[in-house]
Design brief:
The chain is an alpha+beta fold. It has 4 helices and 9 strands; from the N terminus they run E-H-E-E-E-E-E-H-E-H-E-H-E. The protein is globular.
Length: 164
């Protein structure tokens, strides 16, 4: 916040597969992602970014179309509780509507309590749980720990969605 006022983020769509590969490598243990049992490479996704006034990247969302759904692959904000994630989701909802999509889907691991709370506060609902899915993902991304920093075993993938 600046002078007691909420910052206004203006996400922008850009094309930069090299940035996606680097970002995923630093944040998510590999230059590819697994969501819903499917592998995604940087060339498979679109990139929505938020830069601060100084031009530094403070938020990133990667997504693709899956039938009549917008599939959110990753959502990252450099700082929590500043409105960055909210701005990204708001913009993704707008993009989905413009493309006549009916739903936004996202998956997260069972230990990610911050993400589960964030999405549910925005109206997303839990639709399915893939038990032991993280064991499959670990075969491709062995850097994923078995236990999260919060002490919760990382085992399942939870799918949430929001109808538009």
């Amino acid at each position: 916040m600046t002078d007691g006022m909420q910052e206004v983020w203006r996400p922008a769509l850009i094309e930069d597969p090299a940035f996606v590969a680097n970002w995923w490598g630093r944040r998510w243990f590999a230059s590819f992602m697994i969501a819903g049992g499917q592998r995604f490479d940087p060339a498979d996704v679109e990139l929505l970014v938020v830069d601060d006034a100084g031009g530094h990247r403070v938020g990133v969302a990667t997504f693709t179309r899956a039938g009549d759904a917008l599939l959110l692959i990753t959502l990252d904000a450099e700082e929590k509780r500043r409105g960055i994630g909210f701005s990204l989701i708001w913009t993704l909802r707008k993009i989905a509507r413009e493309r006549s999509l009916k739903v936004i889907k996202v998956s997260t691991s069972n230990d990610n309590l911050d993400a589960l709370g964030f999405y549910q506060r925005l109206g997303f609902r839990i639709r399915s749980v893939r038990r032991d899915a993280m064991d499959e993902v670990r075969q491709l991304k062995p850097g994923i720990p078995r236990v999260a920093d919060n002490g919760i075993p990382i085992s399942d993938e939870i799918e949430l969605d929001i109808l538009l």
